[in-house]
Specification:
Layout lengths: L2 H16 L7 H9 L20 E4 L2 E3 L2 H11 L6 E5 L5 H9 L2 E6 L2 H13 L5 E5 L12 E6 L6 E2 H5 L1 E12 L5 E9 L2 E10 L15 E2 L12
Parallel strand pairs: 3-4, 3-6, 4-5, 6-8
Antiparallel strand pairs: 1-2, 7-11, 8-9, 9-10
Helix pairs in contact: 1-2, 1-3
The structure holds S-adenosyl-L-homocysteine (SAH).
Length: 233
Amino acid sequence: MRWKQYKIARERMVREHVYNRGVRDPRVLEAMLRVPRHVFIGRDAGVEAYADHSYPIGFQQTMSQPYMVAYLTEELRLSGEEKVLEIGTGSGYHTAILSALAQRVATVERVPQLAERAKTVLRDLLFTNVDVKNDDGWNGWPEHGPYDRVLLTAAAQQVPRALLAQLSDSGFLLGPVVRQDGKQEIVRLIRRGGKVEIERLIECSFVPMVRDEKRRSAPASNPEAGLAGSSRS
Ligand code: SAH
C-alpha cells in the first residue's frame, strides 16, 4: 500500500469521523492528520485502520475508535506545556497523538508485549518525549509526576487514588468509569487542593481496566463517593 493512500485515508477519517462529529480543535485535527494510525496495529491492517471503529491489536485489546481518541484529546485541553500520564498504552496510537500535543508523556501498559511493541513503534517514528512502562497502571508512575493531565484509556470500576494523588493542583484526570448501573461514562476529575470535583461527560464503551492482584498496592477511590463538586449532563 502506498503512503499516499494512507494519507487520503487519514484525511477522510479526520473529515468524516472527527470534524463532522464536532471535534474542531485545530491542533487535534492536525495531529490526527499526521500520525500514521496503521503503523500502530502491528500487522498489515491496510486502510481499514482508518475506519470508524476500534481495531483489535491482540491480547483481547483494541485500539480506540478514531472519534473517541479525538474526543478525549480535545477534552484534555492541551496547550503544549503539559505533563501527561496515560494509563493503557495499548497500540501507542493515542500516546503518539498526546506526544504531538503535550510537553511530555508517560504511559503505562500492563500487557508486556503491547508495551514493548508500542515503545518500538514510538521510537521508530521519533516520538521522543514519551516514556513507556510495563506495569499495572493502578499505581500510576510517581517518578515522572506530578501530572497536569491523567488519561485513562480503559474503564475503571473505581478510580485509583494514586492517580488522583499524582495530579498537580488544578490538573485533571479524564477517562471512562463504570457507573453503578453498569454503563460506562467519561468523567473529568479535577483536583482542587485536597478536593476533587467531578464532571460527567458522555456515555462510552471501553475495555475494562484490569487490576493485577500480584501488583496490588494502592487503595481505590470511588468517583461516586466522597468527592466534592458539581456534575453535569
Ligand atoms: N489508547 C489505546 C487503547 C488501548 S485499550 C489505543 O488506542 O491503542 C486499553 C489498554 O489498557 C489495553 O491495552 C489494556 O491492556 C490496558 N490496561 C487495562 N488495564 C490496565 C492497567 N491496570 N494498567 C495498565 N494498562 C491497562
